[in-house]
């Protein structure tokens, strides 16, 4: 049970947002239902998430999804892990390799670039932050400055999401195996 319950009184705009979420994910994501207690902040967050989704296109989708998943797993946000697994499945990505995310440094299921990006995600998620000049330089040589900025932004954003969900007691919702996930796998890239 969340520490703050889902909103019971919702505006027409919130109802529309909930309907869109149900159509897209099979259920209203619990962080959205809880955030509806503060409609202006919820709408600001929704606009931000949409802008990030539209703007973060420098890196391959698989790398973007992977580092976000790593942060969620590293911080122990079961909701984020659940939702992230569903998003990867819907994108047609290999979700089986997520079982080896904690062993990414040695697992043959991850490329060298993925290992460097995952190590960067771990260093950014550490407290205090443990990112080195060398990590940034190596990633910049391979991804360019825009790629490193996108990578950094996505990792920082997932840190915020995961920490907020954990603080509010929002846990997995069954997007990977339960009733919520009735959304079929995409067959075309969109």
Automatic annotation (TrEMBL):
<dbReference type="InterPro" id="IPR029032">
    <property type="entry name" value="AhpD-like"/>
</dbReference>
<protein>
    <submittedName>
        <fullName>Transposase</fullName>
    </submittedName>
</protein>
<dbReference type="InterPro" id="IPR003779">
    <property type="entry name" value="CMD-like"/>
</dbReference>
<dbReference type="GO" id="GO:0051920">
    <property type="term" value="F:peroxiredoxin activity"/>
</dbReference>
<dbReference type="Pfam" id="PF02627">
    <property type="entry name" value="CMD"/>
</dbReference>
<feature type="domain" description="Carboxymuconolactone decarboxylase-like">
    <location>
        <begin position="43"/>
        <end position="122"/>
    </location>
</feature>
């Amino acid at each position: 049970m969340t520490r703050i319950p889902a909103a019971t009184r919702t505006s027409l705009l919130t109802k529309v947002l909930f309907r869109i979420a149900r159509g897209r994910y099979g259920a209203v994501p619990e962080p959205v239902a809880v955030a509806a207690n503060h409609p202006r902040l919820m709408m600001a967050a929704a606009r931000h998430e949409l802008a990030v989704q539209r703007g973060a296109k420098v890196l391959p989708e698989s790398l973007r999804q992977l580092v976000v998943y790593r942060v969620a797993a590293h911080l122990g946000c079961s909701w984020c892990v659940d939702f992230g697994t569903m998003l990867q499945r819907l994108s047609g990505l290999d979700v089986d390799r997520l079982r080896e995310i904690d062993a990414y440094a040695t697992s043959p299921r991850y490329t060298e670039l993925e290992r460097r990006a995952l190590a960067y995600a771990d260093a950014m998620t550490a407290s205090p932050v443990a990112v080195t000049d060398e990590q940034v330089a190596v990633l910049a040589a391979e991804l360019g400055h825009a790629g490193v900025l996108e990578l950094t932004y996505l990792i920082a954003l997932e840190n915020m999401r995961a920490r907020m969900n954990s603080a509010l007691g929002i846990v997995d919702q069954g997007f990977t195996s339960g009733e919520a996930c009735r959304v079929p796998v995409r067959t075309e890239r969109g």
